Amino acid sequence: MRIEEVASTTKAQRVATHTHIKGLGLRDDGTAHAMAAGFVGQEQAREACGIVVDMIRQKKMAGRALLLTGAPGTGKTALALGIAQELGTKVPFCPMVGSEVYSSEVKKTEVLMENFRRAIGESWSGAGWVGGGGREGVRVRAPTAPTPLSPPPTAALLSLSLSHTNTQTKHTPPLHTTGLRIKENKEVYEGEVTELTPEYSEDPSSALGGGGAANAPNTTYGRSVSHVVLGLRAAKGVRQLKLDPSVYDALLKERVAVGDVVYVEAASGAVRRVGRCDAHSTEADLEADAYVPLPKGDVHKRREVVQDVTLHDLDAANARPAGGGGGAGGGGGGDLLGVLGSMLRPKKTEITDRLRREVNRVVDRYLDQGAAELVPGVLFVDEVHMLDVECFAYLCRALESPLAPIVVLATNRGVCAVRGGGSDMLAPHGVPLDLLDRTVIVRTSPYSAEECVQILAVRAQVEGVKLDEAALAWLGAAAGRASLRHATALLAPAALLARANGRPGGDVTLADLEEVATLFLDAKTSARMLAEQADKYL
Question: Is pLDDT at 193 greater than 50 in this prediction?
Fold first, then answer.
């Protein structure tokens, strides 16, 4: 018998700077563990952030701001990510950097407003009947114009509500912070795909290449898809659907194949692939994804759908021109003029205040009817000292808005000049005093030598680097001599050097770290060498 050892097929997860942060590491009474959830130290700051999390969950901090201050490398961004981990995926969390507001395409205040509305979400849900079983032909017709923002369906619903207005706006990429939890009833066809057969018809125009039709995904030379037959199987029945060609395009984009579990919305024709049916779990598949059980009940059903969207999703969905932006030359944008038109079109423009007011009006109506729930999220602005006086004034006004999210700011500056206010306008942390009065300030303290060693041990475990006691102590001393970030950056090169030195397990020794330290300098050493050799530089 021959036995061979093969490499694991498990995908390696990419390790980022704050991959080890899993929460704030708090006890049930709100006190902080000395070392938990990836955090080491900073007990007071973590306990303060825990109180903020409780206030966010109780919706008692909307329109308020939290300012995280401290020296570089003391865990301000980690605290913000810990807040996001504690809140979970249901609360919108929108991170940005202060320098993102400077653009040649849109105003600074427009970028801030987009991020504000990204942090405000909405949720919908509903319930209803389940259709009967049997095998029959059903025709699901897609809308003539693409429904804006099919996932989530709320955007399409609000888009229909706003269709009577003549608001002319330009499209801008999504950026919000307030969540809207929307409930609605959906009539869907859900089941395992048993048949997927496109039916073709003669189309002479596709052979001539007019309007780019030959390049469409549902068109071949001289023929086009007239409809597609989709067979679905559920626990209590089987149905065969006759779908519109545009729905066939959606099936191709979702990469639906026989054996997948999908559902098709009867109203819009939107298709969503849920996963692979667990009846095929024994198949050998190199790209196997999540297996899901066979849907219960009948294929045709009305289900309760709860969708979480943001106000900016609704803005962007309704800002798209009617007809899906086919292009300047018609023909669906497939011809040369359509391609040129899409290339010349601005990549990012502003959404008008008129459209936002219309969206807010429709959202208010759904909130009054009880069909939606407003979920204030968190907007995290790192390096807030990069904002200027105009942005700070806009923040002060936006915080007083009834649709304002929780704003978390972070900065590592002391007393410095406010950007755009002249060199004589000094303020603590580079933030004007009128905005500081609206914030609660949490300060982070520098790490001790013992805490640096513990943090390095956690990072080494996350990155899969094995360190002996001497190597770990040397890294702790390097963190105090240079910085904690520099010591953390030496872990991966030292592990590669250990393997190059004949240790396949990657066990890092003191000699490996000393050799790596000669190859990669820290900022303080580089600055000292620059001062000593200033005459050799331009």
Answer: yes
Q: Which residue has the higher pLDDT, 259 or 130?
A: 259
Condensed to tens digits (0 to 9), the pLDDT of residues 357-403 reads: 888 888 888 778 777 777 777 788 888 889 888 888 888 888 887 77
What SS3 state is found at 394?
Answer: helix
Quote the CA–CA distance of 255 and 427 in Å, as a whole number.
55
Preceding omega of 174 cis (within 30 degrees of 0): no
| pLDDT tens sequence across 237-247 | 888 888 888 88
pLDDT beyond 50 at 134: no
- pLDDT of 123 > 60? The answer is no
- If one counts every other C-beta atom within 10 angstroms of the C-beta of residue 203, the result is 18
Tokens of 331: 């023909």
Categorize the per-residue pLDDT at 128 as very low, low, confident or very high, splitting at 50, 70 and 90: very low
Q: Which of 418, 443, 468 is the last residue of a domain?
A: 443
- Among the candidates 390, 409, 443, a domain finishes at 443
Q: Is the same domain home to 157 and 268?
A: yes
DSSP string, 132-168: --S--EEEEPPPSSPPTT-SSHHHHHHHHHTTTS---
- Find the Cα–Cα–Cα–Cα dihedral 211, 212, 214, 215, rounded to 10°: -160
Query: What local confidence, expressed as pLDDT, does residue 87 receive?
Result: 81
Identify whether 270 is part of a domain: yes
Helix (H) or strand (E) holding 177: strand 177-202
Question: In the chain, how many domains are there?
Answer: 3
The number of CA neighbours under 13 Å toward the Cβ of 477 is 10
State whether 190 and 273 are in the same domain: yes
CATH of the domain at 49: 3.40.50.300
The whole domain housing 73 covers: 35-91+377-443
Question: Are 192 and 175 found together in one domain?
Answer: yes
The dihedral formed by the CA atoms of 362, 364, 368 and 374, expressed in degrees to the nearest 10: 120
pLDDT of residue 121: 63
**Strand ranges, E, within 251-358:** 260-265, 271-277, 291-292, 300-310
Mean pLDDT score of the chain: 74
DSSP state of 387: S
Beta sheet of 93-97, edge-to-edge order:
93-97, 378-382, 406-411, 65-69, 439-443
